[in-house]
Structures are given as C-alpha cells and as structure tokens.
C-alpha cells in the first residue's frame, strides 16, 4: 500500500489581522495567492476565521460554489437573499449551495468573538438552484469518533431537508468528518475504493482552538501514520494526504489535550 503526506504548516498559511477579522487561508484567497496551494481536488477554500463582536462580512454575492461554515465557538449570524436568517453556535454546520447566485452576510452575534471554519467546494455541475441547510452535531457525538457532517447529495441516508439529522448534502465529490480526539486516542481512516484515479485524496485540518497565534506552534498535537509514513501536526496545521484505495491511516492524539480535527475525503 502507498501513502504520501505533505504537511501544510499553520505559519505558512496566508494570514491577516484586519482588527475586526483575524484569518488564516489554507488556499489562495483574497490578496493571498499561492500557485502551490490553489485547491485540493474539489476543495477550494479553507479559511479559519475569527470575527469580533458587532462586525462581520457585509452582504455580498456568490455563485457556483458550495459554501459551508463549521462553528468552533461563539455565535454566527447568517442572512441571505433566500430569506434565511439564523444564529449558529458551537456544533452547528451551515451549508449554502450558491448555484445560480445568492447574496448573504455573516456577522458575529453577541458579545464574544466567533471562531469558525469557512469552506468552499466546487460543485460537480453548474446551474443548480440555490439551497440552504443546517445541521447540528454535539461534542459528545464527536468524542473519539469520526462523525460525517457533510456528504454528497443523494448518498444513502443523506436528507435534502433544510434541517435534519445526519450530514448536510453537498453537490461536490466531498465528504467531511469531524472528531474531538482525546489524548492517547486514535482513529483509523480507510481510503475509499470508489472513485476514479489510482490515489485517493484526504485533507486533514487541526482546528486552532488554543488562540490566534501566527508563527507560534501551540496546543494539541496530532500524529498521522500509515504505510511507513509518520507526520506530526500542531493546531492550525493541515496535511495533504494521498493513498491507494483500501490503505488505512491512523490519526492519533499525541498531545495532552483534546484535539478537534476535520477530515476531508475529496475527489
């Protein structure tokens, strides 16, 4: 079996402190441009954002992207041109299929900073009708377990209702899993056998929960291993991982605190 891991270190990400917004960009975004880090399969944007109270992203347009937000802490107020208005909190997953075009705003709600992961993926077809979904997953569900929070639309057990249990439907070849991994615990992940190509793609992101710390490694420690490869990650780090279908990798908490980890299985 073959597996390759390429770390994406937190302090190498694009980052900016605008006062009201502190942000890290895994892929090219806004004024940050990197030919080496434009996208990974259909995964196009992975931003770790912290927005201060009473501020946020004003109303702006999007089209032909699947846009979702994973809430880490605080509260995020969403409004859009489809008439949706919602305040999201820890454990919530919001997904907007922009399709032919929407306008929306995302602002910090309440008196505390909101910390969330902003994710965009490229849909497998254009001209879709705009749709909106929300899902909620508790910390207890995610404790030492991979919880699938996003799955391709039309997959078995995936509801297309605005609010439902189970993963939110995305119109991309992408699945997103989340875990809260305890110290000394480990979880396996097997590269799926479905899909095209010899090597399957996974992207791992370790959520930067400790603090906003550009250039300063801290917090949780995660070890990725499999097929004679071992790579250590810290909070804010990510990794491009390629493996043959059927290869098993292990994701281990090698530190002394709970690690919040996102795993993207993409094509």
Automatic annotation (TrEMBL):
Top-level lineage group: Eukaryota
Q: Which InterPro entries match?
A: Pirin, Pirin_N_dom, RmlC-like_jellyroll, RmlC_Cupin_sf
Q: Which family does it belong to?
A: Belongs to the pirin family.
One matching Pfam family:
Pirin
Boundaries of every Pirin N-terminal domain copy? 15-120
Annotated SUPFAM superfamilies: RmlC-like cupins (SSF51182)
Q: What is this protein called?
A: RmlC-like cupin
């Amino acid at each position: 079996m073959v597996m390759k891991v390429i770390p994406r270190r937190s302090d190498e990400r694009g980052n900016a402190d605008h006062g009201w917004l502190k942000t890290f960009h895994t892929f090219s975004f806004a004024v940050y441009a990197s030919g080496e880090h434009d996208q990974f399969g259909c995964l196009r944007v992975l931003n770790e954002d912290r927005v201060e109270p009473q501020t946020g992203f004003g109303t702006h347009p999007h089209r032909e992207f699947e846009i979702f937000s994973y809430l880490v802490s605080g509260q995020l107020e969403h409004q859009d041109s489809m008439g949706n208005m919602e305040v999201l909190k820890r454990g919530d997953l919001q997904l907007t299929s922009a399709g032919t075009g929407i306008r929306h705003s995302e602002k910090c709600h309440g008196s505390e900073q909101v910390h969330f992961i902003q994710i965009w993926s490229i849909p497998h077809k254009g001209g879709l009708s705009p749709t909106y979904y929300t899902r909620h997953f508790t910390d207890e569900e995610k404790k030492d377990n991979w919880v699938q929070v996003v799955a391709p639309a039309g997959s078995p057990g995936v509801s297309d209702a605005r609010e439902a249990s189970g993963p939110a439907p995305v119109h991309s070849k992408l699945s997103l899993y989340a875990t809260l991994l305890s110290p000394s615990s480990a979880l396996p992940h097997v590269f799926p056998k479905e899909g095209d190509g010899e090597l399957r793609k996974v992207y791992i992101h370790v959520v930067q929960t400790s603090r906003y710390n550009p250039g300063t490694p801290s917090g949780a420690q995660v070890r990725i291993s499999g097929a004679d490869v071992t790579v250590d990650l810290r909070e804010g780090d990510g990794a491009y991982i390629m493996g043959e279908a059927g290869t098993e990798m292990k994701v281990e908490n090698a530190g002394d605190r709970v690690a919040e980890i996102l795993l993207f299985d993409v094509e």
